[in-house]
From TrEMBL:
This is GGDEF domain-containing response regulator. It comes from the Bacteria. It comes from Rheinheimera mesophila. Residues 23-276 form the EAL domain. Coiled coil: none annotated. The chain holds residues 421 to 698 of 698 of the full protein.
Length: 278
């Protein structure tokens, strides 16, 4: 039993060592990717569930390792937040997304783009200026940019975040609360932050047909949005039955694999052009 205990200790320290090495390699990869401008951005369509009309696209960061394997954002985004690299990552995603959106507009497609803003980005006092400067530089109408912010970001430094968001709203951008229902926003926060859109988290959408509790949450979010005159969008729609239920409950905008996975910028342009001809 004694030697077993010893083995276990070394097993765990090996694991810890592997973990630290992996993390370190990932950080180097992220630094390299950012300094070589190799971060990619994919776009997932947002649609009217009833008519299929395209209403927007969400920009999602993508990174490959040196072997060309994709690294999941759920791995590199938290790392970027912890290391402070999120400021640069956020800047690059924002610029690429706005440039693409401008490109779509020049092709004749009026498609707003949504960009995720991590909680840590609100610690950057230059965030608002960075966004408004970019819109001015590109001559992109602010109405074409939507910012997706999580509840946790709002809770960090309430008065500072509130003032940043109200400046962004004054500039004309739209604000959505991402992963709504998973955090702890209260009604008073929704009012205070002048939110435009509630985004129903995919965990609820994916289980609403099999879990009564999730169904109740979806219903509650929909009725909250309706009574506060907020727009709604459901994410993570994978099957027809989820789409039908959402429409029935009063949510008519959504995104998910049922319609399209996130697409590279080339594939998204092809998607736009294909749709236009059908
Ligand atoms: P999110 O903002 O909630 O984005 C939605 C995630 O759900 C994306 O994962 C998307 O690919 C995935 N998704 C879309 N439709 C479906 C579906 O029907 N089924 C399932 N199972 N998943 C679906 P992704 O791209 O892996 O991103 C994960 C998270 O990483 C994002 O969650 C967001 O929090 C973060 N993230 C991604 N890109 C950025 C970025 O540029 N900036 C920041 N701050 N965060 C980002
Ligand atoms: Ca999002
Ligand atoms: Ca989400
Ligand atoms: Ca559940």
């Amino acid at each position: 039993a004694k030697s077993e205990g010893r083995n276990r200790t070394s097993f765990f320290s090996d694991e810890l060592e592997q973990h630290i090495i992996h993390r370190h390699q990932l950080e180097l990869l992220l630094r390299d990717t950012l300094s070589n401008n190799q971060l990619q951005v994919y776009y997932q369509p947002k649609l009217c569930l009833e008519t299929g009309r395209l209403l927007g696209a969400e920009a999602l960061a993508r990174m490959q390792d040196h072997q060309g394997q994709w690294v999941s954002p759920s791995e590199f985004i938290p790392l970027a937040e912890e290391t402070g690299l999120i400021t640069e990552l956020g800047r690059q995603v924002l610029r690429q997304a706005c440039q693409e959106c401008l490109g779509w507009q020049r092709l004749g497609y009026h498609v707003p783009v949504s960009v995720n803003i991590a909680a840590a980005q609100f610690a950057d006092p230059l965030l608002v200026k960075q966004i408004t400067d970019l819109l001015t530089e590109l001559q992109l109408p602010a109405q074409l940019l939507e910012l997706e912010v999580t509840e946790s970001a709002l809770m960090l430094d309430v008065s500072k975040t509130q003032s940043m968001l109200s400046q962004l709203k004054a500039a004309g951008t739209c604000i959505a609360i991402d992963d709504f229902g998973t955090g702890y926003s209260s009604l008073s926060y929704l009012k205070k932050f002048q939110v435009d859109v509630l985004k129903i988290d995919k965990s609820f959408v994916q289980e609403m047909l099999i879990d009564r509790g999730d169904m109740e949450i979806v219903k509650a979010v929909i009725s909250l949005a309706q009574s506060m005159h907020l727009q709604l969008i459901a994410e993570g729609i994978e099957i027809e039955a989820q789409k039908d239920m959402l429409i029935q409950l009063g949510c008519s905008v959504g995104q998910g694999y049922l319609f399209s996975k996130p697409l590279s910028k080339e594939d998204f342009k092809a998607y736009l052009q294909q749709r236009a001809t059908v």
